[in-house]
Amino acid sequence: MSERPKLVASRAAVPTPSHPNLGTPERTVSLLAGTLLIANGLRQGGLRGWPQVLLGACAAWRGYSGTCRIKRALTHTPFEQAFEQDRDWSGSKIISRSITVGKPREEVFAFCRNPGNLGALVPWIDAIEQTGEHTYRWVAHGPMDKTLHCDIEQNEPKDGRKLHWTAGPGTRFKHDIQMHFNDAPAGRGTQLKVIVACQAPLGAAGYALAAAISKFSDKALLHLLRSIKQQLETGEVSTNRMHASGTKDFLFVHPAKEAPQTPPYQPSTGGNA
Amino acid sequence: MRALTWQGPNQLQVETVDDPSILNPRDAIVRVQMSSVCGSDLHLLGGYVPTMQAGDIIGHEFMGEVVEVGSAVRSFSKGDRVVTVSIIGCGECEHCRRSDFSCCDNSNPNPSATDIAYGQPACGIIGYSHAFGGYAGSHATYIRVPFADVNLFSIPDGVRDEQAVFVSDAVPTGYFAADNANIQRGDTVAVWGCGGVGLMAISSAYLLGAERVIAIDRLPDRLQLAEEKAGAIALNYETTDVHAALLELTGGRGPDRCIDCVGMEAHGTEIDYFYDKTKQMMRLHTERGTVLRQSIRACRKGGTVSVVGVYGGLLDKFPMGAIVNKSLTLRAGQQPGQRYVERLFEHIQKGELDPSYLLTHPMGLEQSVEGYAMFKEKTQNCLRAVFRPE
Ligand SMILES: NC(=O)c1ccc[n+]([C@@H]2O[C@H](COP(=O)([O-])OP(=O)(O)OC[C@H]3O[C@@H](n4cnc5c(N)ncnc54)[C@H](O)[C@@H]3O)[C@@H](O)[C@H]2O)c1
Ligand SMILES: [Zn+2]
Ligand SMILES: [Zn+2]
User: Fold this and answer.
1) Locate the Enoyl reductase (ER) domain: which residues (chain B) (predicted)?
2) Range of B306's domain?
3) Neighbouring C-alpha atoms within 13 Å toward the C-beta of B46
4) Where are the alpha helices (DSSP H) in B99-180?
5) Listed residues B305, B332, B359: the one ending a domain
């Protein structure tokens, strides 16, 4: 039996009256506020009164049953809680995506550790400038022709198995990105798992905002992982443009001396094609 | 160049657009010589496939001549006479290597819509909405074909253009449907829909060893072709109780293999059709499941239901109970034609298969709007209109 991995996808349990997710003070406040709203609504009546009755009933039910879906949605996941404790962050929103690339782990790792390769595939990134041995400045085009940049430190805590990027000091919201490389079973290539954590300050509101933004990051991550797979497996990244005019220009400034280049496209022999 | 573009539901227009160019090393540009309508385009026309944008070039069943190839293309060069399988494979991902080309992981540049709808991104399909990659279609003077070595096939001598063009889609789709049905010696196969795809499924079922094929439709010209060209017993569902007839013809067992070549726009005469149609108009679900329900109900116990009719989203009143309690196998897919093209050309060369009768209306590209109107309404016995760009 293999060890059960820690899943980013774990969530707080769905609350039920027998397993409530509200404490006694929260329940009391909810019940009281609900009763007051109902009473006031009934007194007022009409178009202003009935919505109050409805809202009051919801609040009263919340207090009576001790269950709240909204609180559940805003509860940090077990993975986030462990991460926050480990890094000493006040709050975090974490997303993850995985992909299998049909190439040996060494090859996939070598490709991803080279910012010149990766940067060309990250949506929005125009240039990466090497500023130190492990530090890079990522330049992106933001909305309304603004350029944004972010100083990022790249590390390899486990050679051939893990890459780690952190947004350096001075950035407004901390980011922490990990890429894990594992061999897929039975020679099926390499499983690449990316975990993106972004800092979510300001309690529940910040968490809700970060969760909304993470929907876009998730889409970008989907595109990035697909592009990595396509580049490595087929030697190109699929496109539906009619012309080359919209081609993204990517610049890598001061590349490291022995930066590995994209492996040239090698068609597989055999197979069915 | 000139091209037929989608402008909105049931609105098509021939206009002048930019020529395509080579963008990736494995691309080829093909000058289109014949480009056919397909039943799948009707789902785009009807507005049942989301993510279409005004100006999108449609069309995906075509043959032509290679005019330019990218630097990594090995097996083709300028002047080659080719047919294309438009369900794009890359040839390198684990699915393509298993020859499940229509499950390709690397051919769709817009993965997110199908990732959300289906759980994993679908492959790219030429001329078939942005969810399937947003590739420009073949009703045009030129077309860009990605992964040319995998998706282009040279047309052998002795195979005429009007035969070859259908080896792009209708023939491999019908063949795939029959192959998926797992036909055994002595089997009776029932095929719903006698469009180009259904007619090819009937012939393929015989090539794969079926004892007898029963074909179901309502259009007299198509039923006649099913009998005369493909050798089926034809049933008109408007004048026949299909379920009773299928049991009557199979000693009460039901057909061993059932093939759905109709898809989400099934027409019907029973109450479930009106239920589906109403919900579809209210955008509550996307499919009309008449054929699927009928075939599952008719299929003999332990039999196979093979689906190539296209469905896009969610289906209501799906008879799961019949599948479980009759131990049915349900198989489906977009056609992985790359698997079959060479075998199909051999059948054509040996005279065992001739799809050329599907071409009822040769037309110029400029007349393509009328061509689609005719194909959609099934007027003038239009089975497939095929456009020749000038
Ligand atoms: N899976 C694939 O790769 C693939 C490829 C090509 C086409 N298709 C699909 O195959 C289907 C057929 O394509 P086509 O080009 O032959 O289309 P078509 O429109 O020419 O033919 C469809 C036929 O189905 C008949 N029909 C409608 N309702 C019926 C019912 N209740 N019972 C029996 N027949 C009925 C129609 O009368 C018509 O003759 C479409 O759904 C198309 O999208 C799938
Ligand atoms: Zn088609
Ligand atoms: Zn593939």
Assistant:
1) 8-380
2) 174-332
3) 21
4) 112-118, 148-151, 161-164, 170-180
5) B332
> Which DSSP state fits B288?
B
> Which of B21, B92, B340 to probe the A interface (max A CBs under 10 A)?
B92
Which of A12-26, A248-262, B159-173, B361-375 is the least confident region? A248-262
Q: B23 at the A interface (CB within 8 A)?
A: yes
A155 has pLDDT over 90: yes
| Secondary structure element (H or E) that encloses residue B56, with its range | strand B56-57
Q: Let me know if residue A246 belongs to a domain.
A: no
Whether residue B33 is found in the same domain as residue B99: yes
Residue A237 touches chain B, beta carbons under 8 Å: yes
Pocket test for ligand 1, best of B180, B217, B315 (most atoms within 8 A of CB): B217
Q: Which atom of ligand 1 is nearest to the CA of B290?
A: 31
Q: Is the ipTM of this complex over 0.90?
A: yes
Q: Which ligand is nearest to the CA of B277?
A: 1
Does A268 have pLDDT greater than 70? no
Rounded to a whole number of angstroms, the distance from the CA of B169 to the nearest CA of chain A is: 18
Question: Domain total for chain A?
Answer: 2
Instruction: Flag whether A213 is in a domain.
Output: yes
B-interface mutation test, from A188, A236, A269, most B Cβ less than 10 A away: A236
A219 CB within 8 Å of a chain B CB: yes
- Band of residue A271 on the pLDDT scale cut at 50, 70, 90: very low
Position B22 pLDDT exceeds 70: yes
**A105 within some domain:** yes
B85 lines ligand 1 (CB under 6 A): no
Ligand 1 atom 19, closest CA: B39
Residue of B nearest to A101 (CA): B93
pLDDT tens readout for residues A213-227: 889 999 999 999 999
Domains held by chain B: number: 2
Contact (CB<8Å) A244/B21: yes
pLDDT tens per residue, range A51-110 = 999 999 999 999 999 998 888 888 899 999 999 999 988 899 999 999 999 999 999 999
Q: How far is the CA of B266 from the centre of ligand 1 (A)?
A: 8
Instruction: State the pLDDT confidence band at A148, using cuts at 50, 70 and 90.
Output: confident
Residue B72 has which token pair? 């990594």
| Chain segment B322-335, per-residue pLDDT in tens | 999 999 999 999 99
Is the CB of A244 inside 8 Å of chain B's CB atoms? yes
Does the CB of B102 have a partner CB in chain A at under 8 Å?
no
Whether residues B151 and B226 fall in one domain:
no
Per-residue HEC secondary structure of chain A comes to CCCCCCCCCCCCCCCECCECCCCHHHHHHHHHHHHHHHHHHHHHCHHHHHHHHHHHHHHHHHHHHCCCHHHHHHCCCHHHHHHHHHHCCCCEEEEEEEEEECCCHHHHHHHHHCHHHHHHHCCCEEEEEECCCCEEEEEEECHHHCEEEEEEEEEEEECCCEEEEEECCCCCCCEEEEEEEEECHHHCCEEEEEEEEEECCCHHHHHHHHHHHHHHHHHHHHHHHHHHHHHHHHCCCCCCCCCCCCCCCCEEECCCCCCCCCCCCCCCCCCCC
> Which residue of chain B has the CA closest to A230?
B106
Predicted local confidence at residue A117, as pLDDT: 94
- CA nearest to B97 within chain A: A271
Say which residue, A206 or B308, is predicted with more confidence.
B308
